[in-house]
Amino acid sequence: MYVNVPIDMPERERQRWYQLIAWTEHIVGVEKIDCEILQMHWHPANPWACGIRGEAHTDVMTLVLCGTPNQRTMLHELAHLEATDGHGAEWARRLMELHRRWLSPRRALRADRSIAYRYPAARKVYSSVRGARLPLRGGGKESRGASDRWEFRNRARTAAARRHERSRTIPYPWEVPGGLG
């Protein structure tokens, strides 16, 4: 695998990349993934200037990475090299397999849940691979989103505030005709 690292990258950043590159080369060798080129680029002023963390080009078997390196992004892009359906079921199954083999059990579970929440095709794959349904995280049809989650987390405080409101005998000024002036 040919690795291309920018020459203007500071040494500290380069060392972080080299650790990930060695790990990736090991995975590519063990899993027998056809990856010809690993291309990295870096933006000194803004690490996320291109708006992507990675791309996989299956026509030339190339990975292009940007920003701060991490293992989950690398596994995500390696799964793209082996699957032909974008973010479909084949890709999700391969990615979950890579998570299970190359991440700790806890990180693999979190990574699997993360892709299942983000990509619809991965939800069914999650259920078949993990043998359990994806846990709900709020935000269903009836949910108001963040406000519902806040009320649930602070339900005792919310209930106390409502009891206090119901127990008030002195009306607020705006409740009295002519009370505000």
What does it look like?
The protein is an alpha/beta fold and 181 residues long. The protein has helices at residues 11-31, 71-82, 89-102, 105-118, 120-130, 146-153, 155-167; strands at 2-4, 37-41, 54-57, 62-66. Helix content is 51%, strand content 9%. It is elongated, with a radius of gyration of 25 Å. It starts with a strand and ends in a 14-residue tail after the last helix. 18% of the residues are buried. A four-stranded mixed sheet has the order 1-2-4-3, covered by helices on one side. The longest helix is centred in the N-terminal third of the chain and has 21 residues, at 11-31. A hairpin with a 4-residue loop joins β3 and β4.
Structural class: alpha/beta
Q: Unreliable segments (pLDDT under 50, ≥5 consecutive)?
A: none
Report the total helices: 7
Count of extended strands: 4
The separation of the N and C termini measures: 79 Å
- Cα-atom radius of gyration: 25 Å
Task: Estimate what percentage of residues fall within beta strands.
Answer: 5-15%
Largest sheet: 4 strands, mixed
Give, in order, the helices and strands.
EHEEEHHHHHH
Q: Averaged pLDDT, please?
A: 80
What best-fitting shape do the alpha-carbon axes yield?
elongated
Biggest sheet strand line-up: 1-2-4-3
Helical coverage, percent range: 40-55%
